[in-house]
Amino acid sequence: MPKISNKGQQMPESPIRKLVPFSETAKKKGHKVYHLNIGQPDIKTPDVAINAVKNANIEVLEYSHSAGFESYRNKLSQYYKAHGLPIDTQDIIITTGGSEALLFALGSTMDTNDEIIIPEPFYANYNGFSTASGVKVVPVMSSIEDGFALPPIEAFEKLITPKTKAILICNPGNPTGYLYSQEEILKLAEIVKKHDLFLIADEVYREFTYDGFQHFSVMNVEGLEQHAIMIDSVSKRYSMCGARIGCIVSKNKEVMATAMKFAQARLSPPTYAQIASEAALETPQSYFDEVITEYKDRRDTLVNELNKIPGVKVAVPKGAFYCIAKLPVKNADNFAQWLLESYDFNGETVMVAPAAGFYSTPGVGLDEVRIAYVLKKEDLIKSVQILKEALAVYNN
After folding, report:
1. Phi, psi (5° rounding) for residue 170?
2. DSSP letters along 221-279, please?
3. Residues with Cβ within 8 Å of residue 33, at least 6 apart in sequence
4. Helix axes 271-280, 70-82, angle to 10 degrees
5. Mean pLDDT per 10-residue interval, the chain, length 396 residues
6. d(CA 262, CA 259)
7. Which residues are bridge partners to 277 per DSSP?
8. Apex CA 229: angle with CA 286 and CA 84, to 5°?
9. What is the pTM of this model?
């Protein structure tokens, strides 16, 4: 029998999606499942985006430019400039989701067995993208005790070897909801300049910040132009996860020329999704104001409710719509599966994402889960009530 590749065997399963079969079984039993496991917002996609697709008068669904529609890139540049980011049309390549932008960034900057330093816990698919690219993830540990703030710069410095090519951050963070301060970004800028590394910043949650905190982009750091690579996406900003449109952004012309070769190899991003994404740029500010207010309320509701459960510890997120909660269990993987397979509270249960999959250090995060607060407040209150009852049963 032909043999599967080592790379294929090493590809990690998604900690977010691997429990899906158990959730499907729970639903077949007639149980209602509250999905706290996945960052799929329930916020309505802007009408302007949906209508643009409905009204598109296309007779031949042809390839677009490999870099994406020029009209879209022009408008995207204007959008960034309006938000204080000095990004020109030629600094942007449209990709099939932020995922492809990350793959292009890794492919353009790293060779097989090169190393990338990432503060953990981190978005689980960074493990997958790195494995697919033949790149080694070198984790630097952040802690729930200080809300998952940037680890000390000395911790990064200790990990830098001749194989290190980049530092990757998610800001605001998935799965932690931590928002890096300007001071923290500037510290990272100094270290990448000192060691001649790239700083790749996944900024897809840029709009989602709370409590008066402001997002500070790597594209705003003077002198970092040759080092900074920004990853962006329409998925969360406009609640358009299924559009699969993102972009890779950099002032480094060599990086962009190289990324363009990867873009040409996959031909072009999808046409209808680009039409929707270009139109979405006309979304009024009032949409975001309402969405941010709603998410802040959801965050406050979730954190308040979780804090009522004995033995649960939660870091208060400053951005995005996730938090990491430490539970009074030994193995959150087993607990999450048990919730779906063997437990219900009045015919209802919850699905959470075990956090171990968001670390690359073995044996870390075993008692943690990631919770996405993408449900309405009443559902969040109900979900945490179920979690509280379930923990009491599980631990007895």
Report:
1. -115, 120
2. -TT-TTTEEEEEESTTTTT-GGG--EEEE-S-HHHHHHHHHHHHHT----HHHHHHHHH
3. 23, 26, 27, 340, 348, 349, 350, 351
4. 30
5. 94 83 94 91 92 96 97 98 97 98 98 97 95 97 95 97 98 97 98 98 97 97 98 96 97 98 98 98 94 96 96 96 96 96 96 94 95 94 97 94
6. 5
7. none
8. 35
9. 0.96
